[in-house]
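Predict structure. Chain length: 254.
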Amino acid sequence: MISPAISAPARRGLLAAIAGLALGLGATGCASSEDPTTLTVYAAASLQEPFEELAAQFEAAHEDVDVALSVAGSSTLAAQIREGAPADVFASADTANMDKLEDAEPTDFATNTLMIAVPPGNPAGITDLSSLTGDGVRLVVCAPEVPCGAAAEKVQDAAGLDFSPVSEEQSVTDVLGKVTSGEAGAGLVYVTDVQKAGDAVEGITFPEAASAVNTYPITAVPGTAHPDLGEEFIDLVLGEDGRTVLSSYGFAGA
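Prediction complete.
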């Protein structure tokens, strides 16, 4: 309540100020009620860091858009999309899982190759691919349906070896985690994962990796509610800024 002791002019001024504040709050409330558009991007686990950076760039250029990034193994993401998950863009770590999407029109944007990751100091004494079959070596790989697992099978066949992994993971991130935690003596991951891990692992190259180069395709998901925004995000990935970001994380061109 406004005190009756306040003079009439002062009261009128105070009431005007209160009314103006109410109008301002009302306008603010209307503006905040307009939720931004959410662009949902499904991306292979190995793409997490570069796509987080590209998502931030995209949001900076589109003030009314939020990019919701979902990362997992490509086979998991493809299955979710086929089951009706509301993805707008899908970036796979291989063409096999991309081909599971009917009517998709993908474009290749990057490549990646395998590398052996071992804990610091290389306690298992791994020197090459054949070392992974040695007695007592706790090897971890991706499951066969996952792109890094399919690549592991290719290099195994190219070298004429028979791996006996202690576990098969659903994403390359999980394989890397087993190595960095010391649960595994070696893991087959991508070059980009070794770069990302820094001092947490050591990387060992092997010539057979050339037989299993993974190509990464990207597409707007058929039936997406935001086809134009999806294509704009894809243009960012395919453009100069996208190539620069991907290269900084160790990805090669497609």
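Summary: The chain is about 40% helix and 20% strand.
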